[in-house]
Specification:
Layout lengths: L8 E4 L7 E3 L4 E6 L6 E7 L3 E7 L4 E11 L2 E6 L13 E5 L2 E3 L2 H6 L5 E4 L22 H6 L3 H16 L4 H7 L6 E5 L2 E3 L7 H5 L2 H12 L4 E5 L2 E4 L19 H4 L3 H5 L6 H4 L1 H28 L3 H11 L5 H19 L1 H8 L2 H27 L4 H29 L18
Antiparallel strand pairs: 1-2, 1-11, 3-4, 3-10, 4-5, 5-6, 6-7, 7-8, 8-9, 9-10, 11-12, 13-14
Helix pairs in contact: 3-10, 6-10, 10-11, 10-12, 10-14, 12-13, 12-15
């Protein structure tokens, strides 16, 4: 799989607080066709799903499913039961850099390019948006009033999924729900509304994201979720922006660590940068819970012998599990920088026992989640290529750096803390 580098920033719409996070439905978008009477838009999501949209001025047709990329050849597992203009059933493309070709020899010669990658925000909008007819006639009010709210439909579906496959998260998500309609994406500084596609295949590809964003909804200035059964309260101490620690980070890390620029890069406007280690931990919590819920669901589907859903949920865990390595690096660098350049803030942070308990439990839990995922991957060869890709491109470099950061992390953990006894370490005065 090629590196998918388009990022989304999620902006929450509820309450008076605006939070930012990465939506890991990152995608590359390619367009082809004459762009006047017909247009094709191919979206390749980082979680292995695709959408292929065919537009004329009077209609939109969509095909979706899973894609596979091996040796530059893109193949598709289409959910469409029929072949058609929009369907990629039994079709393939050759992907070379940012260009699509229909034949391998054309790709090698660079001739007859079919389509190219685009970053134009109009192609990232919901699938009912037609770039060839952006201002269709208004729908009559009486008809639109009878339409079901896609956001409400999505929530009903997610709660049903949680009830069937991850019941430990159902009440937590119901209370703190943040799904399509609760946030919108920002691509190239342009806002993109949530998709109104409420088909099962489209929604299940957002399962991890919904748990992730709902966890953000719960986490607060003084409270963080380890999992729905363990909530840690703490007091915040003074912070500095995370981007300051880049001065002690290897220069190549910015290009080799997938989430570094988005969360702690220079000028990043997200809380992981602006709120320092407390923002980093908020993201660590969200990534852990999104991954854990997906794996809980995969295990439940396995027990129910629901092969399709099992693979769906394993695929949901793969693009986010390696945040475990990235955010532990960010935390260790924050601590190292503070110890050297902000000793007073560092001392206050090291005295923040409850917060350190939260880190210890999140790290322990996430590590166990990854063991679960690796076992599931070993049992399901069809997803191993994705896992191998993430391990090679995103995990290996982080693991090498973490060897030198282990001493810092060990001093931040609270020795002896477990999920069974953590309450003994919690301080009321903290």
């Amino acid at each position: 799989m090629q590196r998918l580098s388009s990022f989304f920033v999620i902006v929450f719409l509820s309450g008076f607080t605006t939070l930012y996070a990465e939506n890991f439905e990152s995608m590359r978008v390619f367009t082809y066709g004459n762009g006047k009477s017909k247009l094709f838009v191919l979206r390749l999501y980082d979680n292995g799903h695709y959408e292929h949209i065919y537009c004329t001025k009077s209609l939109i047709k969509v095909d979706s499913g899973l894609f596979y990329l091996r040796y530059h050849k893109l193949t598709f597992d289409s959910k469409s039961k029929r072949r058609g203009t929009q369907s990629l059933k039994e079709k393939f493309f050759i992907l070379r850099g940012e260009r699509l070709f229909e034949k391998r020899w054309e790709a090698m010669l660079g001739t007859n390019c079919l389509g190219t990658k685009t970053t134009d925000s109009i192609y990232f909008q919901s699938i009912d948006y037609n770039p060839l007819n952006p201002n269709p006639p208004a729908i009559k009010e009486q008809n639109s009033a009878r339409e079901k709210n896609p956001s409400d439909q999505a929530k009903v579906y997610f709660l049903r999924l949680l009830n069937d496959f991850a019941p430990g998260y159902k009440e937590f998500i119901d209370t703190n729900y943040c799904g399509p309609g609760c946030y919108y994406s920002v691509v190239n500084n342009a806002s993109v509304p949530a998709s109104k596609d409420t088909t099962n295949d489209r929604l299940i590809s957002s399962f991890n994201t919904v748990v992730h964003e709902s966890t953000h909804h719960f986490n607060s200035y003084t409270e963080i979720c380890v999992d729905p059964t363990i909530i840690i309260q703490f007091q915040r101490t003074p912070t500095y922006t995370s981007e300051k620690f880049l001065s002690i980070v290897p220069k190549e890390a910015s290009d080799k660590i997938f989430r570094l620029k988005s969360y702690v890069g220079n000028g990043s406007g997200v809380s992981a940068n602006l709120s320092g280690i407390y923002g980093i931990m908020d993201e660590f919590s969200a990534y852990r819970n999104g991954t854990k819920a997906s794996l809980d669901a995969a295990l439940a589907a396995k027990s129910a012998k629901n092969e399709k859903r099992k693979l769906d949920f394993i695929q949901e865990s793969l693009p986010t599990y390696f945040a475990y390595y990235e955010f532990r690096l960010f935390i260790s660098w924050y601590l190292d920088y503070g110890a050297k350049y902000q000793p007073a803030m560092h001392k206050a942070l090291m005295e923040n026992t409850n917060f350190r308990v939260a880190f210890t439990l999140l790290e322990q839990g996430f590590k166990e989640d990854i063991k679960t995922m690796e076992k599931l991957v070993s049992e399901n060869p069809s997803v191993k290529w994705s896992y191998d890709y993430y391990e090679k491109d995103y995990v290996a470099y982080c693991k090498d750096l973490l060897v030198g950061q282990e001493k810092t992390l060990s001093t931040f953990r609270i020795a002896g803390v477990t999920a069974q006894n953590y309450k003994q370490f919690i301080t009321k005065a903290n």
